[in-house]
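Translate sequence into structure tokens.
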Amino acid sequence: MGHDHVATPEEPLAERLRARGLRLTAQRRRVLAAVTALEHATPDSIGARLREEAGPDGPAPDTSTVYRNLELLERLGLVWHTHLGKGAPVYHVAEHPHLHVVCSSCGDVSSVDPGILDGAAERLAAEHGFTVDVGHVALTGACRACRQRSESS
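Result follows.
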């Protein structure tokens, strides 16, 4: 009886690192696992998670190590970063292209299909020769729940 193999986030990481003559270190593995678990995470929140996991006596990376690993993971195409408007960029696993919408009232972050911007992207290209990098786009506004609360008050 055969079992289908399910790839883990570490497998593409290990393959891409080996292709560049690099190793899959424990720190790289832990940073990728934290990005995967936290979804839209800042480098500080990733570092905090790693320090919490390590405990008081465990090996916890400093902030510069977290940033270096995030930069490497992004160059390898395994994570993306997005600026949500305020503060540090957030990192997430590079699974599928998506656009971020951020509620300026409650701070909720949602992912939507980037095709929603096709008309605007085509117009920007035609009129200005500008190509939109949807992976780095975050639109701010009011989410449904905050709009409904505002309308009912």
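Note: Residues 10-82 form a domain with the Arc Repressor Mutant, subunit A fold (CATH 1.10.10.10).
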